[in-house]
Every structure is written in C-alpha cells, then in structure tokens.
Amino acid sequence: MLCQECGVKQATLHFTKIVNGEKTEFHICESCAREKGELIPGTPGGFSIHSLLSGLLDLEGPGKEKSAASKIAQTQACVECGMTYSQFSKLGRFGCSSCYKYFNSGLDPLFKRVHGSTLHVGKIPKRAGAQIVVRRQIEEMKQELGISILQEEFEKAAELRDHIRRLEKEIAQE
Amino acid sequence: MPSLRFTEQALSDFMRSGGGSHSEIVISSRVRIARNLQHIPFPLLASLKQSEEVLEQLTPVFGGEEATEYGSFQLVKLVDLEDLDKKVLVEKHLISPSLVNESKGGAVMLNEDESVSIMINEEDHLRIQCLFPGFQVQEAWERATAIDDIFEETVNYAFDDKRGYLTSCPTNVGTGLRASVMMHLPALVMSHQINRILSAVNQVGLTVRGIYGEGSEAVGNIFQISNQITLGQSEIEIIDNLQSVVMQIIEHERNARERLLADSALRITDRVMRSYGILSYAAVLELKESAQRLSDIRLGVDLGILQGPSVSIMNELNVKTQPGFLEKMFGDEMSTTERDMYRAKLLRETLGTKN
What we know:
The complex is a heterodimer of chains A (174) and B (355).
Chain A: E1 13-19, E2 22-28, H1 30-35, H2 49-59, H3 64-75, H4 85-91, H5 99-102, H6 104-115, H7 130-150, H8 154-173
Antiparallel strand pairs in A: 1-2
Chain B: H1 13-16, E1 26-35, H2 48-63, E2 73-77, H3 83-91, H4 97-101, E3 107-111, E4 116-120, E5 126-133, H5 137-154, E6 159-160, E7 164-165, E8 177-184, H6 186-190, H7 194-203, E9 206-209, E10 222-227, H8 235-281, H9 287-302, H10 311-320, H11 323-330, H12 336-351
Antiparallel strand pairs in B: 1-5, 1-8, 2-3, 3-4, 4-5, 6-7, 8-10, 9-10
C-alpha cells in the first residue's frame, strides 16, 4: 500500500482512529510522518504521531522489537473483541482475555518491563487447571530427574522416570 | 431509595473489633484479587447486557440468604445507590472510585462486618477484597483465596497457562493479587526519613500510595504500601516480600518514635497537646489539618503522652471527617466552609467540649 500523503513511498505506519464510534484509517510512510512533524493532516484537533509512537515504544524495548511492534500494529486486532494493538497501547488495557493471545508476540517486553518477568508461577484454578497442575508437576520432576542423574542416584532417577511417564499418560488420556 | 446499613456507621465492624499485631503502626491490611470470566469482554468493552450476564453468573455464588463461613452477603447494585452512599462506601474503602465512576452494571457484595467486599464489573469482572485490622496480610490472603476457590467451583475463569489469571490491565496479570497495608508513620515523616525509606520500598517491587489508592495524597501521615509485581512471583512470595518490608518499616518507625521521645520529649509533647487543643476547641477545620492533628494525637496516645482516645475512635474519626461522611451525618450538599465547620463540631463533640 502506498503512503496516502506522498503517494510515492510504501506506507509503513498504519493506524485506526476511533472517535465516537467513527473509524478513520491512516496509512503513511515514515518520512512523511517525520516531515509532517507530530500532526497528521486531516485529523481535526490534531493527532500526535508522537503519542502513537511513544505508546508503542513505551510498550516495546529498543532495537528489533520496535519493528515487531509496528508489524503487530499493522496487522493485529483481537478477533474476539476487535481491539487493535495501537488502541491497546494507548489505553493500556486489554479488551478481553483473547487479546492476550492475539497480541502475544508484543507482550513479553511489556511484561518484562512492568513485572520483570513474563511467566505466571502462582495459583492455578483448581477445576480448570487440573491439567496445568500435573504439567507443572512433570516439569519439576524432570528437573529433579536431571539432578539425580548428575548425582548418580539412579534408583531415584528410575522412580522419577516412571512417575513422569505415568503422569504423562494420564494427561494424554484426559 | 432505601437507606443502606453499610453507610450508617463510619467504622466497619471488623475494624471495631480491633486485633491484629502492630496496630499502633499498621492500621489495616487488605488483599484484593482480580478475576475475569471466560468468553465475555472485560468491563471496558462489555455491553450492558454482557455486564448483566457477569452479574448473573457471579451473584448466585454468595447470593443466597444462608450464612456462609464468611457471613451472609448482601448484593448492592450501584444504580440503586444514592450518590452520597457511593461516596461513603469509597471513603470506607469498601468500593473503589472506579466502580462508582466507570462501571457499567457495577455491583458489590458485602458481608455483615464489611470485612469482605466483592466488586463486580469494576475494571475486572470480579474483584475480591478482604480487609483485616492491624497487620494481618497473611490472614487476608487466606480468606481471599478461599473465597476465590468458592467462585471457581461455579464459574470459569479466564486463565492462561503462561500468563496466569488474565486481567484487563497488564499490571494485574498473573496472580491478580494486590496486597496492601495502611501504615501510620508520623515519626519517619517528622525525622525526614520517610522519602529515603519510600524510595527504597519502590526498589523492591513495592509501591506507596495515599490512603485512597492510585493518585491520592498521603494525608495525616498515613501511607498505603502494596506490591507492584503480579507476574513471575507466587502469591506466597508476594505476601512474604510485603510482610518483611513492612516489618522493617515498623522497626524504623518504632526507632524514630523512641528517638523523638528521647531527644525532644518537650517539643513532641507540646505538639501533641496543641493538636489536641485545636481539635477540642476549633470552630473551623479543613480536612488536611484535621488529618494532621489526628495523626499527632494518635502518636501522642501511642507514646503515652495522652491517655485516650482509643485507636478505634481515631480510626472512626479518620473516616467520619471525610467529605461524604460529613454530608451523610449533617445534611446533603454542603459548601466547603460548611463541611469545615461540621468537621470541627464533630471533633469537638468527640474529643473535647460539648458546645
């Protein structure tokens, strides 16, 4: 798609602005965005490209992740609730639980920044998470197995191996 | 509209009963956990119909009249409340300002002693909040997680193997847990150590706020300390971390109080007595001043300079002197000056002369 400003270069910045339910789409190239400064023409009241970028940058680390982020911004919207990545980055709120799935590739840097971590290690719902509990147990036992092999405790290792197999079979059957 | 029993008295029964360790410094402990239901957009995007569906799924869990282990619950829908009642519930920390301002189909389930508050359609579909007097974060967590389990028997939560409990705001994902303690730290403020300590607190994944949460100012030397991280740490780690930091702050505050008493007993006695005098006789009192003077009196009681009032009365006055409560007690829609006048009257009647 060509830039809607210069009509020459490939548009690399795509975003949607929604005001009172009215959707306006923008497709511009980076140099036009830069040249025009902060304001995108044709948007009453002005729209700060800076705020859009900073919104994205805010969520993303430096370097490679930036381009990954704009790629997400171009293409990704949550299929369940319709929220786009740029809306998300501006609002700082997910629209539904599926957003986590659709924006997944952009989330690790964000979570690392906010929490210093990307993986949940806490409570698991009892009823819905029974499988997850077993899977976590298997993971832990595998680590233990590795240690017992290193320490040449082969009897313990064999026991662990059998236990892991049993649990894996149980999960597969469910 | 019917009058709401939860807004009739300033101090919740759970606070009145007192208890909890270190209550001379830690006023209360609170745990909140955020949960969402599967396949329904978060409240930010949910339609009114979807919000009602959330309500229908969640309310029967504690909706029956029969008493549970945690008391019997009353469902209060925000649309059925008068503005003043909403304000008072916020001042008592039973609901959040965003449940009042931003919620569609918002509701709260409260038990009799008001130690459990279950908010529905706040920023997340479900927010379970448990409050305890004094330093009892562990106890608050145990109760909250037990209530969470009861909900989970009936409803399906939005949960992800990798990210944990999915929440509307990325800052709550994972455990959805926010544990906090409200602390009275006058000696650390007076000895100018507070900023150093609070910035250290920020470096270990905790955050400090005013008593009414995000964006609110710390008035009357009361600070709310809570965990910031919810992902990558287990609930137990989060609680342990908060507890150990709070213990250290308690220690620092205690030392600072001892030093104050040892180095400047006369000055501190004078300050406490002056504040007592002002609250007992003033005709007009702004909230900020009354909060500061109440803090002085609380310190005076803790240090043995004053014989009363009791901690329970001090806690009650902290709530009663808030704008919503004053209007509730003395009549709707007051000007600031009227409020300052009634605040002074209330304090005079409680602490000093009866005129």
